[in-house]
Amino acid sequence: MLSEVQVTTARLLASGRSARSVGRMLHVGRDTIRKWQRDPEFVDEYERALARGGAPDPRATLLDALSARRDDGVDWPSRLRAALALLEQDASEDDDRTLTASERW
After folding, report:
1. With helix as H, strand as E and coil as C, how does the chain read?
2. What's the confidence (pLDDT) of residue 88?
3. Least crowded by CB within 10 Å, which of 4, 35, 86, 103?
């Protein structure tokens, strides 16, 4: 099972960020990221993120905000509100969907 840092790293790499910038942001060494890139579970997460076509991931946005600095020039309050709204929307959509037979068990 991947750690939150590994999941975030995979998603940031899939969004087009360099391993160097992701490493600095998350305080992870480039050699560690290279090691993770050989892990099949990490590769699967990276490919899932690529398949989303760069769609914003609210969870990753929240994690980014937690590691943000005041001087990075990003309007984090607005991004946080947007991420929280997306998470709430996802939760309500999950509540509204019909369960399949296998999910009922």
Report:
1. CCCHHHHHHHHHHHCCCCHHHHHHHHCCCHHHHHHHCCCHHHHHHHHHHHHCCCCCCHHHHHHHHHCCCHHHCCCHHHHHHHHHHHHHHHHHHHHHCCCCHHHHC
2. 74
3. 103
35 pLDDT exceeds 90? yes
For 41-87, write each residue's pLDDT tens digit: 999 999 988 887 656 666 666 666 666 666 766 676 766 776 677 67
Our measurement of the distance from residue 21's CA atom to the centroid of its chain's CA atoms, rounded to an integer in Å, reads 15
What pTM does this model have?
0.54
Give 46: exposed, middle or buried? Use CB within 10 Å, 0-12, 13-18, 19+: buried
